[in-house]
Amino acid sequence: MTVLLVIFIFHFTIHQPYSPVSASDPDPIQDYCLPSPHPHQCKNSSSLTVDDFIFSGIKHPGKFTDKFSGVPVSAAVFPALNTLGMSLVRADFKAGGINVPHYHPRATELAYVVEGRVYSGFVDTQNRVFARVIEKGEVMVYPRGVLHFQMNVGDSPATVVGSFDSQNPGSVKLPGALFGSGIKDELLEKAFGLKGKEIEKLKKRFGMKKEDN
Ligand SMILES: *[C@@H]1O[C@H](CO)[C@@H](O)[C@H](O)[C@H]1NC(C)=O
Question: Under CATH, domain 58-170 is a member of which superfamily?
Answer without folding.
Answer: Jelly Rolls (2.60.120.10)
